[in-house]
# Entry
Amino acid sequence: MDLFKLISDIEKVDPEIYERLDPRRRVFQHFGTAGKALTAAALPVVFSGIFQRAYGQAALPADIQAVLNLALSLEYLEFYFYDTGLKTPGLIPATDRPAFEVIRNDESGHIKTLRAALGTAAIPEPTRAAFDYSGGRGTQAGPFAAVFSNYALYLGVSQSFVDTGIRAYKGGAPILMPNKTVLQAALNIHSVEARHSSHVRTVRRGVAANAVATTVPGNPANLNLQPKSWVSGNDNGGPSPNTTPSTAAVYGPGNPATGAATAVFFPGEENITQAGVNIQTNTTLTGATVTAAAASEAFDEPLDAATVKGIARNFVLATTTLFT
# Structure
């Protein structure tokens, strides 16, 4: 175990990790001598204790554990997806590999951060064999069966995963609010996932247009194939709205879809009303109305845990306990 690389990985998603560890600086000061007496087998236990104290999660409530474990399950889904893609010869062009290596490594860092925050409450670590990226729930014959031989399809599935993760993190935020430290760490990961989504979307439309990605604008008439770098409306149901499973659920409403103004509810990404104000028609700030697409693009909508699990469950073996 490389302690400093581990902390460096965590720093990518939690810039304040050193601040959290600072009160325990003496632990690290003693590592120079005491560390020599520790066996390799004992190091993970020591480090786990350090991070548990740093994040103060010794008594995390059950609902917070559930949110973080769902996030951890999604991170495993994504990590093995990118790791498998990078290990598949000829799938990812050489020019695109560095970015996907960064994304794969970010997912690995998120896993380490979440496991450190959860401690012994973390779900058991799954293997690559737990996932079926064809969308076939173990048959390997779902609508995305060619995902590791068709780069355009790989990018489409990737977009669905990152966009699901973004809505999942935002949906879990109200539950994490009582623990500000954990909330901030989770939202830091949320922002990283948003950058992943923007990059994948940009590459996708470049591949679709057979042109340099940054020179190709999103096509509102065909967002399924040439998305913008951000979600617009309901994104026309995503990359594959007419398959089973469909990607439409990634951008659609959650449960409940509507509710009172002060209640938590989960509208689709095409939502244009925030805090009771219609963003499209309100002219108080700008003096002008905006399009429904522009109004929807200004906000990411959260998604409830049950809906997130329903989407992700299509990509694991039916026999696993992930996303149940």
